[in-house]
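Can't paste images in this forum, so I'm doing it all in text. The chain is below; anyone willing to post the predicted structure tokens underneath?
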Amino acid sequence: MSQVTAFSFDDKIRELKEELRGLEEYPDEQFLQIIKDVGFECTLCGKCCTRNFNDHAFLLDDDAEIIRSLDESALVPAPYYEFCDQNGEFYVSGYAIRANRDGTCHFLEKGRCRIYERRPQICRIYPYMLHREEDDEGVFDWRQISGLNRHGSYHASIGDEECRQIAGEVREYENGFLKQELAFLEAIRGHFEKQGLKHSPMAYDRQMRLFERGGKVRVNVFYKGGFVPAATTKKDY
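Text version of the structure:
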């Protein structure tokens, strides 16, 4: 986990709103053609359900609610905590699915998903995405595909109707993700102001050292408009 540097809440909120507008304005036909050209087809290899291929599966609130109803122990605060106050408490914008010790998803059993029919949105749209992200060369641009040629098969024939369905689901997830991030920033800004708190890089570093040594840290998870307290250790990931 890496430290988040200090920044203005207003600036970050403005950036996310601009990205949300960019998502809304992204041409449908361009994305549809990318989906058609990629032609991803699942081969049931299960690789996308492992930490070797995907760092974590971030859950939107509605999906976190479903997972909670199925198996509450499967929820963990999403990694890469965004903030830490001067009292040493972390804050993160949502939940993720717990991984097993071998790096496989909590719900992967004998290479198959135990909750396939109720799997989260992020699992349903994979490997497609539609957001701005920095690549390995530092180029910040639109990313539409994840894990290209690392699993599954490609260049299958996908009909126009299926392409439109995929594009719609991807947009829905990315829109929900950005709105959840915006709500998180606005909530934590208000929480910090009301409680006289602030993001403390010194406390962040201190608590991360404790975490890396296997110690227990306090994390406040943004969920349904509020913060849910949790206590985690490195073993939870």
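The first helix runs from residue 9 to 25. Residues 161 and 167 are 10 Å apart (CA to CA).
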